[in-house]
Amino acid sequence: MRLLTVCGSLQAKSGNLSLLRAASSLAPTGVDVVHFEGLGALPLFNPDLDEADPTPPVKAWRRALADADVVLFASPEYGHSLPGGLKNGIDWVIGSGELYRKIVAITAAVPHASRGRLGLAALAQTLGAVEAVLVWQEPTVRGPGSDDAVRDIIRALMQAASQRHT
Fold it and tell me: Across residues 9-33, what is the average pLDDT?
């Protein structure tokens, strides 16, 4: 089982990136966790750039998504929405289909449970364009208990993936 993790923040010391790194160490045996680090290298979406041969960063993004059984996005809320870089990444695969009906969990590393919900709602709405199958859409509070929450997210992804394969 391949779990692709994608951080919506491009910040080097992002709490969301820390959450995804924790997912790598908390994943059960048999789950290959791969982190996509090229979101910031994607050019701004432009259909003209996609007509002939997409750029290497776009090819790498599409390949990472295509190779994944499930995807975990951890993303901050910017301006009551999702970060522009993440929206741009999703735009690059709306027409090509690598995220179409993919099993996805979305979360945000937050200091309090009431934070991040507008960003997650915007991300969920954007993922609706590819009919992603959302199995988790809750923020993860940083601190004690966050490892348990990450395990719950991974469990939800694995359960949905195993049900799909039966």
Answer: 95
